[in-house]
Amino acid sequence: MAGDEGVELTAEAMQLSDVSKTVAGGGFVYSRLDCIGKQIGGLGLLAEYPFLRHLDLSQNCIKDVAPVGKLQHVLSLNLSSNAISKLDWTPQELPHLLFLDMSSNQLAELPQLHMPALRRCDFRFNRISTCADFQGHSTLQTLRLSSNQLASAAGLNKSPKLEVLELSENMLADLNDVYRLPCLSTLDISKNKFESLVAPWHEMAALKALDVAGNAFAQVESLKPLEVMASLRSLTVAGCPLEEQDGVNMRLEILIFQCQLQTLNGEEAA
Q: Which residue in 186, 230, 231 sits closest to 212, CA to CA?
């Protein structure tokens, strides 16, 4: 039985599929590798498959991801549910990677992501307490950071194409360090520690859908910043103390602040 370190990747454990031409067109190779839940720890064998484009290595015992970085043609990479605590790929590695799943690992920080083609990445269910080194990405469209240990949003900025940002189930109380997200259309900050919606919303001018459910809004005034969100069309704000206050019609108060809403808590706003 494999220990905590897992076992080395073997040809027998690999499920190879999707035969395609090489990039140069001089032959045919397998482009997809699936090896799920096989207690794999070592990835040395990957060096013999340089033309892989899609890898699913989830539910294993992987700690060292360096061998993956040597694969220059990877488009999608699933390393979820492993034991990875560090990403140390160099700026020259994984140049074509589009989709990265690192959920359910042991990462303590969100690093700078050098992959120039990256579109979507998932870092949910880690131990991430800081994003300070991230400092934005020029092509990233979706970033999922729910269920971590973030108390600050510092570093989540300068991402001109980011459309979806998920930060639910963290320890955030403000978004003061978020800026230069001009294309952000969906933001989930539910189940955090927000007491007010005061935030640099002008840095997220395209925001259409906002989920702030399960936060600590206790005063009507805490929702007043809704007034400046000109593009907002969908708001979820259930599960906050304000709902329980006698004499407060939270739905009406929200619609006073933001009359352009189309859906409120999953229902038609009108």
A: 186
